[in-house]
Amino acid sequence: MADTGRTRQSGQVVEDLTTSLAERIANGEFPLGTWMRQAKVAEDYGVSRTPASLALSRLEAMGVLERVPNRGFRVRYPSPREIMEVFEVRAVLEGHAAYLAAGRITEVQLQQLWEQVAGFRRVVEMIREGADSEAVGAPWRHSYSTFHQTLFEAAGNSQLHEAAEALYRKLPRKISWRVLRGDPRSLTQHADEHEDITTAIEMRDGAKARQSTIAHIEAARELIIAHLPTPEPGRTRG
Amino acid sequence: MADTGRTRQSGQVVEDLTTSLAERIANGEFPLGTWMRQAKVAEDYGVSRTPASLALSRLEAMGVLERVPNRGFRVRYPSPREIMEVFEVRAVLEGHAAYLAAGRITEVQLQQLWEQVAGFRRVVEMIREGADSEAVGAPWRHSYSTFHQTLFEAAGNSQLHEAAEALYRKLPRKISWRVLRGDPRSLTQHADEHEDITTAIEMRDGAKARQSTIAHIEAARELIIAHLPTPEPGRTRG
DNA sequence: CCTCTCTAGATTGCATGCAATTACATCTAC
DNA sequence: GTAGATGTAATTGCATGCAATCTAGAGAGG
Question: Membrane-crossing residues (chains A, B) (predicted)?
Answer without folding.
Answer: none
